[in-house]
Amino acid sequence: MEQREAIHILTFAIILIISCIISYSIGKYSNLLKPNFVCHEICNIEQLPNTDSVLLKYGLSSGYNLRYMDDFLISYDTKNRIPFWVLETISINNLIRIENNYRKNKRFTVDKYFYKPFQSTLEDYKKSGYDRGHMAAAGNYLHSKSTMMKTFLLSNIAPQVGKGFNQGIWTELENKIRNVIQSEIYKSAHILTGPLFVPKEIKYENKTIFMMEYEMLRRNVAVPTHFFKVVIFTDKSNKISYMSFVMPNAIINGTIESYYRNISDIEKLAGFRIFPKIDFFKIKNKITF
After folding, report:
1. Which of 105, 66, 106, 63 is nearest to 274 (CA)?
2. Strands (E), 53-185
3. What is the Cα–Cα distance from 163 to 257, expressed in whole angstroms?
4. Annotated catalytic sites, by residue?
5. CA 255, CA 168: separation in Å to the nearest integer?
6. In the chain, which stretches have pLDDT less than 70?
7. Could you report the per-residue pLDDT of 38-63, keeping only the tens digit for each?
């Protein structure tokens, strides 16, 4: 009897010791579960809008490292340190400027949400010769200082040629989209924007080969060869129209209209679906400027 009790006591003691070791280990390594340590893996669980969010109305392109900013959503490429894509939705209310909400009051900022080795930095862009190009445009958020400020996080930025592109036709495209919304023909617009890496066609020994070639900023940030933008306009009767573009990341002297591309072409280049809840073959209302 005494021997059996001794065995029970010993068993209980062993279990207690093991429990203490496990508790100590969990406490010691709990920092591994904190967002600041592995935010690129853990935080994404919390970085999705609610399923009834207007952002998700037409479906979500495949992506990861999602960063939810209330008015827009970023899928971040931790290898190239630029977005895969940025999804936003705007209405005329976005374009009513509140007092003192201007671009000149904002500063580009490192997005510390992501694991530090995967962040792009201000130093990456310094003297690079490229503009810090917005994917979600700052001008789409005149109604909110905090949201406009978020567009200046570097996770929303990709290197763009300045004069002749970011400061030219790209800005013109953004302005024209806002003009369509301000006309009040449509009540809202869903905008998907992102970089593309398109291989070059090269003739070699009587053969055609395709080669991928792009610049890197300080060995960290990839410079896209092209950019795409797809816009879904919804009118007051919930009918939709759309426009879709691909533009080279270069000095452009042509017109916006010359850069229209089919959705299927963009999907092939990007490697993911564009607004997957929409059957674009059934939509006849393709908008032109």
Report:
1. 63
2. 66-68, 72-77, 82-90, 131-134, 157-160
3. 19
4. 134
5. 11
6. 1-46
7. 444 444 444 788 888 999 999 999 87
Q: Give the tokens for residue 44.
A: 């994404």
The radius of gyration of the chain from alpha carbons, rounded to an integer in Å, stands at 24
Residue 162 is given by DSSP the state: I
And the tokens for 70?
Answer: 């209330």
Tell me whether residue 166 is annotated as binding.
yes
CB 227 within 8 A of CB 194: yes
DSSP secondary structure string for all residues of 129-150:
S-EEEESS-GGG-TT-HHHHHH
Q: For domain 36-282, say whether CATH 3.30.2320.30 is its number.
A: no
Say which amino acid occupies 121: T
Whether pTM > 0.70 for this model: the answer is yes
Structure-block tokens of residue 131: 């503009």
Residue 68 Rama label (left phi>0; alpha psi -120 to 50; beta): beta
Q: Helix-strand-coil percent breakdown of the chain, rounded to 5? A: 35, 25, 40
